[in-house]
Write a structure and sequence with these properties.
The complex is a heterodimer of chains A (about 70) and B (about 575).
Chain A (H helix, E strand, L loop, with lengths): L1 E4 L9 H5 L5 E4 L2 E4 L10 H5 L5 E4 L2 H4 L2
Antiparallel strand pairs in A: 1-4, 2-3
Chain B lengths: L1 H4 L3 E11 L3 H12 L4 E4 L16 E3 L11 H11 L6 H7 L4 H10 L13 E3 L9 E3 L5 H11 L3 E3 L2 E9 L2 E9 L5 E11 L27 H8 L4 E2 L4 E2 L2 E3 L7 H6 L3 E3 L19 H13 L5 E4 L5 H14 L3 H7 L8 E6 L3 E2 L9 E2 L12 E3 L9 H22 L8 H16 L6 H16 L5 H13 L1 H4 L7 H25 L24 E7 L5 E7 L5
Parallel strand pairs in B: 1-2, 1-9, 2-6, 9-18
Antiparallel strand pairs in B: 3-5, 4-5, 7-8, 8-9, 10-17, 10-19, 11-16, 12-15, 13-14, 14-15, 19-20
Helix pairs in contact in B: 2-6, 2-12, 5-12, 7-17, 13-17, 14-15, 14-17, 15-17
Classes of the chains: A alpha+beta (about 70), B alpha+beta (about 575).
Bound molecules: flavin-adenine dinucleotide (FAD) and iron/sulfur cluster (2 copies).
The site of one iron/sulfur cluster has 14 residues of chain A, from helix 2.
Amino acid sequence: MTAVIDKKKCNGCGLCALYCPLDVIYMEDGIGHVVYPDECWHCGACRQECAKGAVRFEFGAMMLAV
Amino acid sequence: MSAWLSGEVHRIKTDVAVIGGGTAGLNVAMAAREAGASVLIVDKAHIMRSGAIAGGIDHFMAYLDTGESWDTREAWLKYVGKVARGAADLRIHEKVFCDELPAALARVEKIGISLRQKDSGEIFRTQTLGQPGPYSINFDGKFLKPAMAKEVARRRCKVINRVQVTNLYLHDGELAGFAGWDMRTGDFYEVQAKAVVIATGNTNRMFKSQTGNPFNLWYCPANTGDLHRAAWDAGVELANVEYVRMTIVPKGFSAPGFNAFFGMGGKFVNGLGDAFMNTYHPMGDKAPRNVMVWGALQEVRAGRGPIYIDVRHLKPKDLEHLFFTLGIDKDTLPEFLHAKGYSREGTMIEMTISEPMQARPSEMCGAGIKIDETCASNIPGVFGAGDASDQMGCLHMCMAGGFAAGKHAARYALRQTRHRPLDAKVLTAERKRVFAPLTRRAGLHYGEFEGIVRIITTDHFGPIKTEISLTSGIAKLDQLDSHREELKASNLHELMRCHEAMNIHAMAKIVAHASLARPESRFSPYHHRADHPETKDEYCGLVVVGKGADGRPTTRFQPLHYAV
Ligand SMILES: Cc1cc2nc3c(=O)[nH]c(=O)nc-3n(C[C@H](O)[C@H](O)[C@H](O)COP(=O)(O)OP(=O)(O)OC[C@H]3O[C@@H](n4cnc5c(N)ncnc54)[C@H](O)[C@@H]3O)c2cc1C
Ligand code: SF4
Ligand code: SF4
């Protein structure tokens, strides 16, 4: 389960990394990276802050198939 | 590693320090500034988007004096006395909530968040949780947190983000200050404060979750009891911490939605397709949350699972409102439901019982720092607010009560003529302790350590407990003590998680000790002693946990009285 950042859309503004309440996003090479995907709470704050629409969510089989 | 240990040391003085800039903490800060105190907010995340309502919130519970018999202060207090009996202290509730409610409602609107429906301009309220009438105002609180963060900046509160507070210090029995460290730079903070308000939420990640992922939780996984533990270590008393709270969540995703689903008329049904809640409570699907969870547990245990919320009978307009409000409370929930194949046209949505957590047994009280009518703890200078205190919780009390705590903390701080000193030797030792997991080459990963804690807690008191299960659970948790010294971090993020893991472990012991001191059941299944399944009048009150001379939890009982 995690937020996923589209590298092509990300402009490197850094807001997602600045605000993520779980400290799971870091900026690497000028782009937002979800470094601890297993620790994402799915709160959606990063997506709400992203002006570029670069964040989407993948729920994964553990959430969808059970 | 050595680079991290050579981080700067910052020494700061403030009148009032707010630890935890979440919902309650930001209201504390606003009030303390308004009262003329200098204010420092310290948060482990970033206050624009930290804590429970980082992604949004959708219900504000309140009485509004509309002329209806259930909509008055008296009716509200009667309701609190009924649903939070033995946990809510009504004298405190009146002071920290009722007296502050009108100003809190006005404050939400003043910072730009409307409590009214966009299209009609009306207040829309729904009824759940045993309420005598529709107390829950449905509103769009998606941007409430950023709006409050901007307001504290406007009021010129000082803010330090990404700093995890690790311990509190006293001087001659009164608050002197606290220590913390910056998870992005490795800098160390030594703060002297005339008063601190602890507003760090409840303890999560303490029990196994439905999918096994400890971050797939209803409540904010960043709240890990850090300051419950630190305050308790400094001699602050805790109360209501024996309760292990749960709710009903969608299968696969521990997201909130209970209030919206049942408020809009969703029906709770079992694997036979039958509505079952009337068997457990006269209010059926509008029963208090603990009773709903109890009902679900019984149905599943009796082999009548899985459980569902049936929304097929809802009118299209109501369904639309339901899905809209689900996405306000949990931004990603509507698309999860969609990805699972549930359509807006109406369906039976499979639900399950959420992970247990250390938290309040009712929406009308709290669990944690034991506070009085001025939000003060037993230690001069230490105050509590929000989910971290024993008498506040949920949006309504965090907004109203947070403000009360800020006023009282400022009043106290402004009466102090000087800051009390911090002991340099103690702080040097704390700095070494904080960064120690970075110095270990081999050792235990925080995930493994926390996983062990979760197996023990879930097996021994998650949620059903007995004297034997609790005593043997405590013995296992004690055995884990030696492994705390093996925790290893390879970067600052992992270091934060190591400290969280240790705090979850320490809080688990406190929960178990408090549970032993209540040989009855109350708010079942939140405190269900299989060896004492009945509720006993003599235990109508608080189990208060302190720290003994031997470093172990001590308990005393404080009765609570209700007029009706
Ligand atoms: C998804 C969700 C939806 C909800 N919906 C509703 C609703 O509709 N209506 C309602 O009444 N209630 C609702 N609740 C409950 C309500 O939101 C909470 O009770 C309330 O927001 C808690 O506020 P708080 O300030 O006590 O804690 P939080 O807002 O969680 O703040 C705690 C803060 O402490 C910080 N912190 C933690 N540890 C440390 C440390 N060691 N050092 C520094 N900082 C630290 C955290 O980063 C966080 O910012 C909901 C809860 C959740 C999780
Ligand atoms: S907020 Fe969006 S654009 Fe900015 S860094 Fe994050 S993903 Fe990139
Ligand atoms: S959804 Fe929330 S927890 Fe997950 S990466 Fe985004 S901001 Fe962080």
